[in-house]
Amino acid sequence: MQVAHFTLAYWCILIAVLLPIACAGIAKSGKFNKPRREGGYDNHNPRAWLAKQTDWRARANAAQANSFEALPFFIGAVLVAHQLGANQARVDLLALLYIVTRIFYVMLYLADNAKLRSVVWTIAFGLNIAILFAGFR
Questions:
Q1: 29, HSE (Cβ side, Cα atoms, 13 Å)
Q2: Using CB atoms within 10 A as the burial measure, which of 43, 51, 100, 102 is most buried?
């Protein structure tokens, strides 16, 4: 009986799941201790509060949304690669590179560097495709 182990690519799934949560935390940072009537974070209506944010807070919220949007494809690609018996070192490397590019993507979103952000998004998408087809024979 073969014993499965938790691969680096699986750990990357966990990091990818935590990334949008981190983006939301960035968007809300510094506003938790401020009263709602003074513009502080509104936990009673968080989506409406986030929708009213501007500048870097709005971009952090947009990065959160994009991170959630990218998540299913990444999870699926990693699971398919594992299921097809892809070379584990290759899948691990591609998954790690995906996480690095997604973190860089968030940083570029916060910095309002739209052109480079789009390039990095495209690279991350390409890495996802490479993961998906890593086990293709």
A1: 11
A2: 102
